[in-house]
Amino acid sequence: MKFSDIPAHDSVKQQLVEMVDNNRIPHALLLEGKSGIGKMMLARAFAQYIHCTGRHDGDSCGVCPSCIQHMSFNHIDTHYSYPVIKLKNRSGAAISDDWAEQWRQFLDDSPYMDMNSWVELLGNANAQPQIFVDESGSLIRKLNFTSHAAQFKIVLMWLPERMNEPCANKLLKLLEEPHDDTLFILVSNEPAKILPTIYSRLRRIEVKRLSDETVGKYLTDHYGTDRDAAEGIAHLAEGSILEAVRRLSTSDESRQFLEMFMSLMRLAYQKKVGVLRKWSNDAADFGREKCCRLLEYCERLTGENYIYNLNDRRLVALDNEESRFSANFARFINERNVERLRSLFIEARRDIAGNANAKIVLFDVAVSIILCLKQ
Ligand SMILES: [Zn+2]
Q1: 49 C-alpha vs ligand 1 centroid, how far in Å?
Q2: Buried b (16+ CB within 10 A) or exposed e, 340-375
Q3: Could you tell me which of 128, 136, 124 has the C-alpha nearest to residue 184?
Q4: For the ranges 24-38, 131-145, 233-247, the one whose mean pLDDT is highest
Q5: Residues β-bridged to residue 154
Q6: How far is the CA of 148 from the centre of ligand 1 (A)?
Q7: Distance 159 CA to ligand 1 centre (A)
Q8: pLDDT at residue 374 in the model
Q9: Whole-prediction pTM value?
Q10: For the chain, how big is the Rg over CA atoms in Å?
Q11: Ligand 1: distance of its center to the CA of 111 in Å?
Q12: Which residues contact 236 (CB under 8 A, 6 or more apart)?
C-alpha cells in the first residue's frame, strides 16, 4: 500500500515520511483515532515506505521487491499481530499466525478494518477476539532472528487495546528494552484501554476523522452512490468510511436493527409478553457482539426519538427510514422515561458483554419497557 492509495490524512502522511527521511523513526509508534478512517492503511504504507528501496516524492515506489512483498503481505521482516480466537482442538492460547490466511483476506477485502467482517472470518459470531499471552512469546521469537534483508524489523499490531494483561506485561518488557532495528507500529481505536505503562512509551500520532466531503467522495467513487445520497450518508457517518459503508447498504445491519427496535417497542406497547420472549430469543441468536451492537443502536435511537419529541429536529441524526418511524413513535419517549429506557439498554449491553445469558437479559429489558412506555 502506498500513501497515495489512501484518501486524505495529508499531515499524518507528511509526519511519517519526515520520520523516515530524517532518520528519526521511533521504536514504538501509535496511530490512534476512531475506527474506519484508514489508520491501518497509514501504518501499512509507513512500513512499506520504510522498507522500499526506490522511495521517491514522499512515497514508496510500488515496484521494488520490498514493495511487492508488502503488497502481498509476504514481507519477511514485517509481522502482523492482531486479535484472534482459539482454534478448535488447539491446546494452549492462540496466536496471530493461526489465522494468517484469514488475516490476508481481511486486509485485502476490508482495508478500513471492519471488526464485524473480521469476526465473521474467524467463523464465530460470539467471538470476542483478543491478543493472548502466547502472542508476545511468538513476537519475541520472530524479533530475535536477525532481519533478513531490511534495516528494520516491523511489528504491525492492530488493536493493542485487545491485549490481555499477561500479554501486555510481556510486551512492555520488549518496549522497555527495544532493539535498535525493531519498530512497533500500533493501531488503536480505543487508546484509553491500552495499559498506561505501555501507552506512555509510545510515540503517538492522532489520526483525525475524515471530512464529510472525503467520505462522500469515497461512496461516489467506490459504490456509485449519487451525490445527494452520498452527502446525506457522509453527514451521519461522522468522518468514518466504515460507518458510511455500513449505512449505505439497505440490507445492512442498521435496517435490521431498526426492524428489531420497531417491533420491540410495538410489542411492549401492546404488552405481548409471549411474543416479546420470542423477540428476545431471536435477538440473542445474533451472538454476543452483534447483540451488543443492537443494544447500542436501541439506546441511540431512544435518545434521538426523545430529541425528536422535543421538536428540535435540527439536532436529530436519523436517516430517512428512521425518521418515518419516529414521526409516529417519538411522542412515547418523554422526560419521564427516556433516562430509564436508555439505562436499560446500557446495562443490558454491559451484562451481555460480561457474558450474562443474553436471552434472559433481553427478556428482562423487553418486560421493563412495557412499564416504561406507560409513563
Ligand atoms: Zn519500493
Answers
A1: 7
A2: ebbebbeebbebbeeeeebbebbbbbbebbbebbee
A3: 136
A4: 24-38
A5: 78, 183
A6: 17
A7: 27
A8: 82
A9: 0.69
A10: 23
A11: 20
A12: 243, 244, 247, 317, 319
